[in-house]
Amino acid sequence: MPVDNGRRRLLWLAPALYATGLSAAGPAAGPQTTLAGHPVRIAFIDPLSGPAADIGRNSLRSWQFMASELAGTDNPAGVRCVVAGFDNKGSPRESLNAFKAAVDQGFRFIVQGNGSGVAATLSDAVTRYNLRRPDDPVVYINYAAMDPALTNELCSFWHFRIDADTSMKMAALTRFMAEQPALSRVFLLNQNYEHGQQFSRYFRQFMAHQRADLQIVGDELHAPFRGHDFSSHVRQMRDSGAQALVTGNWGADLRGLIQALQKERLQIPLYAYYPALSGVPELLARGDGRIPVYQVACNHSNHEGRIGQLASRFRQQTGEDLVVFSSFDGMVMLLQGIAQARSARAAEVAARMSGLRFQGFDGPVQLRAEDHQLQKGVYISRWQKVDARHPRGAEGTGYTFVPIRRFESDQITGPVRCRMQRP
Question: Residue 12 sits in a domain of what CATH number?
Answer without folding.
Answer: 3.40.50.2300
